[in-house]
Amino acid sequence: xxxxxxxxxxxxxxxxxxxxxxxxxxxxxxxxxxxxxxxxxxxxxxxxxxxxxxxxxxxxxxxxxxxxxxxxxxxxxxxxxxxxxxxxxxxxxxxxxxxxxxxxxxxxxxxxxxxxxxxxxxxxxxxxxxxxxxxxxxxxxxxxxxxxxxxxxxxxxxxxxxxxxxxxxxxxxxxxxxxxxxxxxxxxxxxxxxxxxxxxxxxxxxxxxxxxxxxxxxxxxxxxxxxxxxxxxxxxxxxxxxxxxxxxxxxxxxxxxxxxxxxxxxxxxxxxxxxxxxxxxxxxxxxxxxxxxxxxxxxxxxxxxxxxxxxxxxxxxxxxxxxxxxxxxxxxxxxxxxxxxxxxxxxxxxxxxxxxxxxxxxxxxxx
Length: 367
What we know:
This protein is of the alpha/beta class. The chain has helices spanning 74-82, 92-101, 122-142, 158-171, 194-202, 226-244, 249-252, 271-280, 291-296, 307-316, 333-342, 347-361; strands at residues 4-11, 22-29, 64-71, 104-111, 147-152, 176-180, 182-183, 186-187, 206-210, 257-260, 298-300, 322-323.
């Protein structure tokens, strides 16, 4: 019996503006043996050959909703290059090809980290947000049913952000708003952002949040990329700021629907420490501790689909709070599919993650 090996290439790293390095991984491809005739039949006693388990293929019919899928509008690419950044290689066709391989029917697009705010000129950020959002809306029109989008806003510019929320949700019909974990030196729980969250709460908006570079930690481990440690930790920092911060954001604005990436980063592993925080320092806003709040959030499985990550997440939340995510173009949708299949979810639970939970949240998406 002949065993054929097919070489594949995958990429590693976080969703940042730098293209992650590639490395080669070996997967197994099975082929049916041709039987030349009865005389050449295989013996039932033929020796078994031990091979690694085959990676699960997605269903032929696209049915998944990917809530963590990055695109690179031309305006953002230009802004990155002008500032000496190297944006990821991307095109609509690249996205669609990866979606098809992973059985993704619709991807809700978001632009690359760090979004549209580069720390100085408000007018430039407002203009960039508008151009990126209009591009994403057009992407959805050009490829009907394949793309929704989370709109970018120019935080920490409050006035510009409120204007863009109105335009993106009312005119462009965005599926939600994309935020980053921090802006300059402020995490999302900072009181400076309360007017924006008040408006998002009034609209019962979906807020998808992605990590960006940390501004709090000047000391790093030499030779260790930020994406290895800081990306997951950044999510935890901004979640903590929303729950424990003086602004009381999640306590005041309970109608915002939050989606956190990467299976919550390090949040599921630190729930006991979150609980201890309220034991040591009781908080009247949380008579039952922080867990009910963490359990009300939604979490995607992009780069959070290993057995340990999924097990920790599902100890914290129910299946109703888990959504499919790929982190394309930094990871392939197929990676997330394989992780979910390997975890052996029930058919009903898999359907909820693949699209059921998302379809309840996003009325514009039809599969």
